Each structure stands twice: as structure tokens, then as C-alpha cells.
Amino acid sequence: xxxxxxxxxxxxxxxxxxxxxxxxxxxxxxxxxxxxxxxxxxxxxxxxxxxxxxxxxxxxxxxxxxxxxxxxxxxxxxxxxxxxxxxxxxxxxxxxxxxxxxxxxxxxxxxxxxxxxxxxxxxxxxxxxxxxxxxxxxxxxxxxxxxxxxxxxxxxxxxxxxxxxx
Length: 166
Hints:
This protein is an all-alpha fold. Helix content is about 80%, strand content about 0%. It contains 5 helices and no strands. Helix 1 (about 10-55) packs parallel to helix 3 (about 85-95) and helix 4 (about 95-140) packs across helix 5. The protein starts with 11 loop residues before the first helix and ends with a helix.
């Protein structure tokens, strides 16, 4: 005769605790992986900064230039949030003539992109105001003369309408 091993059933609390432990273990594994990747990224940034200092910006390969460009773009946008290793790349680029030219070019490109984006927003805003003023003109049935009093009246009317929409 075979012996049948009877195992007690797990309670729902025990099952929950096991599932919770598995989730925590996975979270820890992911966190460890992120930490390791972060350390590798820091090492890579420091190696690139050192390479720029020793052999110059022209010695970087394409992937390193792309990496440096991303770091520089981040520095241009939010310099106050720069990490130490990002700042070391920045310093190395400032010391290298070709690196400095690349940095200067990225500043110009980033500035022109932000100006372009703000001009698009301003254009859309002005078009919206123009439509609002056109609708005021249609409702009143008059042609507004482009002078200061007419502009003040139109702006006041538009402001009242916008305040009334809230």
C-alpha cells in the first residue's frame, strides 16, 4: 500500500504573503539591475570625458558623439540638474576646440528649436484671437477700424467673453 502524503492547505493569507514576497523579490531584482546600469553609465560618461581630455573630441566614434550630444542637450535645457559626470563631459568639451564648436552648435540648434516652438504657439494664439475678433465683428455687424480705441474695446469685449465662458 502506498502512503499518501497529505499536505495542509495554504490559507489565503499565506498565499498572499508568498505572492507579496515574489513581487518584492522582482522589485529588488529590477532595482539592482537599474543600479548596475546606472553605475555602468557613470563609468561610460567618465571614460568619454577622459577620452575627450586626452585625445580630443575628434577621436570619438559615432555612438560616443551621439551619447555626448544627448548629454549636452540635457545640460543646455536644465544645467542645474546636471550630474557630476555630465559636468565633466561639459568641461572636457569646453577645453577641446572641436568639442567647443560642437557645444556651441548644439546651443544654437536648441535655442532655434525653442524659438520655433514658441513662435508656433504664439501664431496659434494670435490666430485664435483673430477668430474671436472676427466673430465679434460678425455679431456686431460693423467693421472695426484699426485704431487704439477700437482695439481697446475689442480687447475688453474679448476679455469679458472669455471671463463669461468660465
